[in-house]
Amino acid sequence: MSLFLINVLLALAWAAVTGSFTFLNLAFGFVLATGALSLIREQVGSVGYFSRARRVISLMLLFVYELILSAWKVAVLVLTPRMDLKPGIFAYPLKLDRDFEITLLANLITLTPGTLSVDVSDDRRFLYVHAIDCSDPDSIRRDIAEGFERKIMEAFH
Amino acid sequence: MMASLLTLVSAALVVIGAFFALVASIGLLRLPDVYTRMHAASKAGTMGSGLLLIALAIHAGDTGTMSRALAGVVFFLLTAPISAHLLAKAAYSVGYRLDAISVRDEMAENVTND
């Protein structure tokens, strides 16, 4: 985390030196600072920082991809003349235990195809998920466990 | 050349975004209960407004508008799932049951509503 702060500070320094605090210049400075940090990664011990950054970015890309896919699926479903719905709520057993991770997982589930998180059980062992096609809840559980939950664990553990 | 390309891209994004907004509202009309409707509103709705804001950011070109539009996209992505989740949770706890065509409700087995 402190390396991320240094990265932001270097970006601000770049913007100060070039005298332009526009969004593009700040972004460019951030990229330059990342490059500079990666040059000295052995010395400042930022090897973990880069592999973690890569995993966080891959989580974000997965998120955007799933959002596009899910909006598309809703569109197809809504525009078919005869909707074939088997909605239902199933319980998803959580492996994550920190509040922030459960929140992230619940948000990701809501923005993915056909699923919407409704509630977390009081003991935080189950997440209740509403699925628009709940005929095979086991395969949805498997998708979440192998997709988002694993990625979140990789990114934040 | 570059400017007309950007205009074309933002025009395409406006059309696609409007399409998803339309789909979200058709979904609100056609789907049977509050939970399935939240699917249409949270996903197609987020997608539609997000694309419209991105189109605005590309079209405007100046940094102030661009960064505000992109911040809008980020906040949409952050807040849409939370509001959908809260609405579904509130609907469930005040007793809106799932529509009759639903195939299962494991929440009813484990949660007692007062």
From TrEMBL, chain A:
InterPro entries referenced in this protein's UniProt entry, alphabetically: Cation_antiport_E
One Gene Ontology CC term in the entry: plasma membrane
Keyword Transit peptide included in the entry's annotation: no
Protein's name according to its UniProt entry: Multicomponent Na+:H+ antiporter subunit E
GO molecular function term, any single one: monoatomic cation transmembrane transporter activity
Stretches that traverse the bilayer: 56-80
Natural source organism: Hoeflea marina
Similarity comment: family membership: Belongs to the CPA3 antiporters (TC 2.A.63) subunit E family.
Keyword Nucleotide-binding: no
Topology of the protein relative to the lipid bilayer: Multi-pass membrane protein
Automatic annotation (TrEMBL), chain B:
InterPro entries (UniProt xref): PhaG_MnhG_YufB
Keyword line: Membrane, Transmembrane, Transmembrane helix
Bilayer-crossing regions: 6-29, 41-60, 66-88
A Pfam family assignment: PhaG_MnhG_YufB
Keyword Transmembrane attributed: yes
Keyword field contains Membrane: yes
GO molecular function, one term: sodium:proton antiporter activity
PANTHER family from the UniProt entry: ANTIPORTER SUBUNIT MNHG2-RELATED
Name of the protein in its database record: Multicomponent Na+:H+ antiporter subunit G
Lineage: Bacteria, Pseudomonadati, Pseudomonadota, Alphaproteobacteria, Hyphomicrobiales
